[in-house]
Amino acid sequence: MKTRITAPLLLTGLALSAAMSTAHSAEAEGRPYRQADAEALLAADRAFAEVARAKDASAALADLFAANVIFTTEDGKLFRGKEAAIAAIAADLVGAKIHWQPVRGGISADGQHGFSYGFMAAIGPDGATKPLKYLAYWIRHPEGWRVAGFKYARRPQGNTPTATMKPLLPKHAATFDPEGENRHAESLAAAEKGFSDEAQIIGLSAAFARHGGPESMNMGRTASFTIGSQNIGRELFGAPQAGSPIEWSSDGVLVASSGDLGVSWGAIRVKNATPPQSFAFFTIWRRDSADDPWRYIAE
Fold first, then answer.
1. Closest CA to 245 of 207, 279, 203
2. Same domain for 66 and 149?
3. Assuming Cys at both sites, which of 20, 45, 71, 293 could form a disulfide with 85, CB separation 3.0 to 4.6 Å?
4. pLDDT of the residue at 180
């Protein structure tokens, strides 16, 4: 087991050490807050990706998953914990090897939570390639960054931008507060519920446009990602119309102690369905400060 994790831990540790040593001096020189931490997170993601090339998909992802990871599938299933998540991936990407490349990341004001998304490919035993894209929510642990929430989706063939986008950084830096994670959890769950409640009135297209922003990302239906909440609403649901055939709420949330970044997961329920129908979601949320409204940033 040690030989499997030594390389990514070494690469991640080096990246984190460099980031920690420069974070305060960089901010003092006028650079954006937490830029070094965001760069370290993306470096960790790339380091895991490099090591993954020599492994099966399930073993590669096991290296970066936290013990209590949440994994959602394209067909709406949710798996809790590393063992269940890895078993589901092994059954889906049978014998495949994977490689990936992050194209964007974001970080919390306390530097302890972050996210990344990018493009992935699974190469089967027969050499056939499945183009994928992924979204990961990360939490910093003593041993380095680990993924607390993850999903991937198949994507059609097509041109995809590979240049790294500017990371989403906080407008201030905050120190880690052990009590802060619980204190902000209720507000995030309420934001998720409010999103659903408003969709019942103004419709899904308008609600998705209103509860996100220009930087919001959806995995989308094209080869790339859909950016911007207005675009997301139109692509997923077309022209605005009142009412919604679905409703949803959080079953669990994780929030940075600074209260500006978090992830929510739960079930989307089809209204009036017989028999009952539901499918899982996880959504990453962000806000400028603990006093501002939550807006979804990636899903």
1. 203
2. yes
3. 71
4. 77
